[in-house]
Every structure is written in structure tokens, then in C-alpha cells.
Design brief:
The complex is a heterodimer of chains A (305) and B (287). By secondary structure, chain A is mostly helical. Helix content of chain A is 70%, strand content 0%. Chain A is built from 13 helices and no strands. In chain A, helix 3 runs antiparallel to helix 10, helix 7 (168-193) runs antiparallel to helix 10 (223-239) and helix 10 (223-239) packs antiparallel against helix 13 (273-304). The longest helix of chain A is centred in the N-terminal third of the chain and has 32 residues, at 19-50. The radius of gyration of chain A is 25 Å and the shape is globular. By secondary structure, chain B is an all-alpha fold. Chain B contains 15 helices and no strands. The longest helix of chain B is centred in the first third of the chain and has 35 residues, at 11-45. The relative contact order of chain B is 0.13.
Chain lengths: 305, 287
């Protein structure tokens, strides 16, 4: 858009933006820019620098170069956190997306109370991570939890949901899914409603059944949304902190310690900010990779829509 | 009832009706399961403390009581937490909406030197999560004297670039001619912004405000790091400190009463503004 071509005012030459007008965009950008510089850019630069320093980085730091990164590679807990991050992401992302798609397809037909269903199914998304964690730790409580009470009422044995290394991760995944499925549903529903009904009707006239229509017409048209959701969900899952922190604290043992928990622990529990920054940079690199894919995905979405 | 042959003209609508009923039943059951955690939270918060931990299962407390809420307000600095959360959410939303609208306007409607560079820098911070910059941001806040102050939560919160992007996306659709006309009529830049651009941005302001309020109200990690005295904690941080510290000394009924107070306002805001909220999510998600 050629905003620069302003009309010549009295006493000014044509096609010249007056100085006052040149300052205007910077003035509008300034409040955001100051905050952004202080709490966005400077910390990112500092994190990179800190990752090459030893100890608490404020008191008498030593430059250790890639020493922190080398130490990460030989730290078994780092690898366990990395593995847990992978398991957590693989457990949450595909299931949330499949569940969301399933609900969206069900809701994408004339149905009484469709808006109500959509609203209620999305509602868990707006609860805070801490709130969700407290509710879930009550529901999955080993001694008094309603799930275990129901299990023993049905004659089954009680399960130590949050206190056993086997069950803690699946329980945490379940808690995340509860608040994530509705989000995927809303985005899939928006995409489904953009698909012209005539396409499916045409396929039906050609004799395609419901499954065939979904596979050959709907699913390919959902591809940009699917790709977008994949990236966003991976980024979400890599960033989940409060829920894990309150629900399990990364335990039992280190069974649910993910990368972010590792960063937090190194920085604030052990006071090793240099080491924490290095772990943070590794996490950021993984996230940047996925976010770059995300921006490519948004371009794809616009191409199709 | 006469038998309907499969494949006959009467078969199809009938089958479609049956499918519709099945979908309705399925959706209702799924929705009930999804709502159960909220229901259970409220039920427990109204159940007398001793009864909450008994093994018998009741869908509704036998003798509902408000004692947990009384205990929550008398036994814990809950009023202070609520006040802090409200102040931070309201001031934080005001500041981030204002800042995002202005920056979004600059990016959407002006061409200026360095625009692309600035824009890419904003992109970069969206890619890097707060957890990675936690330590240096904390040190910046220490140097600005923001530790233990509500501004320590509000200012970094307003620096989030997501709002700027949403604002930019929306404002690109405002026709340039409207602004040109205002300028020709002699309106200054601030006047053009306030009188022409803002009135057209109603839905945008609603989306930004709802997103900012819920983000500040729910935020945990950063306030947890920057707020350290009991009198400055927000609801989620206070709640988490109970959960971690006094888990076995705090009765579940009381914990769930506090949780209800933390979760319910945002649920209500969501139900009131759900159209804006859902469209905002769906809209930003597909752009």
C-alpha cells in the first residue's frame, strides 16, 4: 500500500512526506517498542550471552564458551527431560488434534444447540493451568479421588495416578488433553464451515459414501489447518509449565520433568543461571524450528482460503 | 408402522434422523464428561470438608455448605490475592490493548524506515518462549526495581507481541481513504487515530481485551518468579503455593473453593464474550 504518497500541502513540494508525518509511525510504535526492547529483545540477547557464562552469572562469572552446552550433552537428567518432552508432545498433540477433528465433524451439521456445544467444549481452554492442575490432582487423587472411588466401586483396583512413575505421565497428558481438544475443535470447525457444501454434494452425486467423501474431499481441504494445528500444538506442548509444576512438580522422581522444568530447576532451585540459559537456548532452538514451520503454514492457509 | 425398505425413498431421511439423534447423544455425553471436572470442583467446594474425603460418591453434596468459602477468606490472604489479580488484569489489559493498538496501527498503516526489521524482531520474540528468557528478564526487572511490584507483572506482559500482530492484521482491512479524508479535513494524527481508526476497531478491542484479561488473570510462571511476598501474590500464584506447601494441611474443600474463585470469573468472562473469544482464536489461528 502506497501510504507515502500524501497529497502536497500548501508550501510543500509534491511527493515529499513532511518531516512531522515521517515521525508519526515511530511515535505510535514507541510505547510498545520500549517495553519490547526491555522485556523482549534485551533478555533474548542476554540469554545467549549467559549461556556461555558459569554459575549464577551475576556474581563474578567466568566465560566458559560452549562449556554449558557440553555439560548438557553429558547430563543424564537433560536427556531424560528431552525424552519426557518428546513423550509428552507425542502423547498430547496427535490425540488432541484427532479428538478436535472428530468433534468438529460431529458439530458441522445442522444440530439443535450447536453453539452451546461449541462453547461448552471450548470452556476448559480458558481455565488457568494452575486451576486445571488443582482440579485434576483432586480428581486423580490416589486416596480420595473420584476416579479411584469409582474404580473401587466397580470392583477394580485403585491406580496411583500421580504418584507412580508409570501412571504420572499418562495422567498429565490426559489433563492437558482436557483443555486442548476444544481448541483444536474450534479451529477445525471454522475450517469445515469454509468448505463449500456443493463440493460434498457433487461427490455424493458421484456415489461417494460418507467416509469416502471425508477422505477425498474434506480431509485434503483441511490440510492447511491440520498443519497449522500441528505446529501450534507442538509449540504449546513444549511450553507447558504451570500445569506440570503444580500437578506433579516434575515427579515422581523425574518421571514428568520436561525441558522447561529442567530450565526452571537449574535457574531457580540450583541457582545455576548460566547452565539454565544454555538449556533454555536449546529449547528455544527447537521452538524456533517449529515456529518457522508455523509461519510457512500460515502462508499456506492464506493461499487456500 | 409399515416397514421401510432400505434404499427406498423413505429410508434415507429416516436413517438421517437416526444418525442425527445418535450424534446428539454422543455429543451430549462427551460434553458432560468434559464439564465434569468443573462440576466436581464446584461440588467439592460446597461439600463439608470431612465428607469430601470420604470414599462414598455423591454427585451432589448431601448437605451443601459455604464453610469452605468462609474458611478460604478467613484462613488465607484470599482478598489480597483477588485484589492483586483484579488490579493486574485490568491495568495490564488497559496497557497492553493501548500499546498493541498503537503499534499495530503503525505497522498496518504506515511505511517507514526499518519497518521490516522491527517486524522481524517482533516475530523473533513470539518464537522464543518466556521460559527461555526468564532469567535475563528477571535481572532486567531487578535493575528496574520491579521485583515484588504489580508493575513487574504488568510491564513485561504488555511487551508480548501477539497483541500487536492481531491488531496489525485487523487494521490492514481499514480503508486508507478514510484516514486520508480525515487528514484533508485538517485532523491531526492523534485525532485521526482516536476519531476514525478506533471507532472502527470495536471487535478488535474486544478480542484484545478478552485475551489480555484472561492472560493476565491466568498467568503463573512470571508472577511466581517476580512476586515473592504474601501480600503481592496473585490468585494462581497463591493457589500454587498452597498446593505445593500446605498440601496436606489444607483441606481439599477449601483448596477447591479457592480454585473455584480463581477459575469461575474467567469462565464467566468467556461465556459473556464467547463469540469474540472463539472468533478471535479461530481468526488469529488461520491467519
Amino acid at each position: 500500500m502506497p501510504e507515502e504518497r500524501t497529497r502536497p500541502g500548501p508550501g510543500q513540494r509534491a511527493r515529499r512526506v513532511p518531516l512531522r508525518r515521517q515521525i508519526v509511525p515511530y511515535a505510535f510504535l514507541l510505547p510498545s517498542g520500549i517495553l519490547f526492547l526491555l522485556f523482549g529483545l534485551i533478555p533474548i540477547g542476554a540469554a545467549l550471552v549467559f549461556s556461555t557464562l558459569s554459575g549464577s552469572v551475576t556474581i563474578d562469572p567466568d566465560f566458559v564458551g560452549v562449556g554449558n552446552y557440553a555439560r548438557l550433552v553429558s547430563d543424564p537428567l537433560f536427556w531424560e527431560a528431552l525424552r519426557n518432552t518428546g513423550v509428552f508432545t507425542l502423547g498430547t498433540v496427535p490425540v488432541a488434534m484427532a479428538g478436535g477433528l472428530f468433534l468438529a465433524v460431529l458439530l458441522n451439521r445442522p444440530l439443535p444447540g450447536r453453539a452451546v456445544f461449541r462453547t461448552l467444549l471450548f470452556a476448559p481452554m480458558v481455565a488457568s493451568g494452575v486451576g486445571v492442575a488443582v482440579i485434576m490432582s483432586w480428581i486423580f487423587n490416589g486416596d480420595y479421588g473420584v476416579v479411584n472411588n469409582a474404580l473401587s466401586a466397580a470392583g477394580a483396583s485403585r491406580v496411583p495416578w500421580l504418584t507412580s512413575t508409570t501412571w504420572a505421565m499418562p495422567t498429565v497428558v490426559l489433563a492437558v488433553l482436557w483443555s486442548r481438544v476444544g481448541f483444536c475443535m474450534v479451529l477445525y470447525l471454522a475450517a469445515l464451515q469454509n468448505i463449500p457444501e456443493s463440493l460434498r454434494e457433487a461427490a455424493q452425486l458421484d456415489g461417494a459414501g460418507p467416509w469416502r467423501r471425508f477422505r477425498s474431499v474434506t480431509w485434503p481441504l483441511l490440510a492447511p489447518t491440520t498443519f497449522f494445528l500441528l505446529i501450534v500444538n507442538v509449540v504449546f506442548s513444549l511450553q507447558v509449565f504451570d500445569l506440570l509444576f503444580v500437578l506433579t512438580g516434575g515427579g515422581p522422581g523425574f518421571a514428568t520433568t520436561v525441558l522447561i522444568q529442567f530450565v526452571y530447576r537449574a535457574a531457580f532451585a540450583q541457582g545455576n543461571m548460566g547452565y539454565a540459559s544454555a538449556a533454555g537456548v536449546v529449547l528455544a532452538l527447537i521452538l524456533v524450528l517449529f515456529t518457522l514451520l508455523r509461519f510457512r503454514a500460515s502462508r499456506k492457509t492464506e493461499d487456500v482460503a | 408402522m409399515p416397514a421401510v425398505e432400505p434404499g427406498s425413498p423413505a429410508w434415507r431421511p429416516r436413517r438421517r434422523q437416526a444418525a442425527g439423534a445418535l450424534v446428539l447423544v454422543l455429543l451430549t455425553s462427551i460434553t458432560l464428561v468434559m464439564l465434569f471436572p468443573f462440576l466436581w470442583m464446584i461440588v467439592t467446594s460446597l461439600t463439608p470438608n470431612g465428607q469430601a474425603t470420604s470414599p462414598e460418591f455423591r454427585l451432589w453434596p448431601a448437605d451443601p455448605t459455604l464453610e469452605n468459602y468462609v474458611e478460604a477468606f478467613t484462613g488465607y490472604p484470599l482478598l489480597t490475592w483477588i485484589r492483586n489479580s483484579v488490579v493486574i488484569s485490568v491495568l495490564g489489559a488497559l496497557l497492553s490493548v493501548t500499546v498493541s493498538l498503537m503499534a499495530g496501527y503503525a505497522f498496518a498503516k504506515f511505511r517507514f524506515r526499518g519497518r521490516t526489521t522491527f517486524f522481524l524482531a517482533y516475530l523473533l520474540t513470539i518464537m522464543v518462549p518466556i521460559q527461555v528468557t526468564l532469567v535475563p528478564t528477571f535481572l532486567v526487572a531487578v535493575n528496574l526495581g520491579l521485583v515484588n511490584s504489580i508493575w513487574g507483572v504488568i510491564l513485561p506482559g504488555a511487551a508480548e507481541a501477539t497483541g500487536v500482530f492481531i491488531a496489525r492484521q485487523f487494521m490492514m482491512s481499514i480503508p486508507d481513504e478514510l484516514m486520508e479524508a480525515a487528514r484533508l479535513d485538517g485532523a491531526g494524527e492523534i485525532r485521526t487515530f482516536c476519531r476514525i481508526v478506533l471507532p472502527l476497531s470495536g471487535p478488535l478491542v474486544a478480542v484484545l481485551a478478552v485475551l489480555a484479561v484472561t492472560a493476565r488473570w491466568n498467568e503463573f510462571l512470571w508472577p511466581f518468579v517476580i512476586l515473592q511476598g504474601d501480600d503481592v501474590l496473585t490468585l494462581p500464584v497463591g493457589l500454587a503455593s498452597l498446593q505445593g506447601g500446605d498440601l496436606f494441611s489444607t483441606p481439599w474443600g477449601t483448596i477447591l473453593a479457592i480454585t473455584t474463585i480463581a477459575v469461575l470469573p474467567v469462565l464467566i468472562v468467556f461465556l459473556v464474550f464467547q463469540r469474540q473469544f472463539v472468533q478471535g482464536i479461530a481468526g488469529t489461528g488461520s491467519k
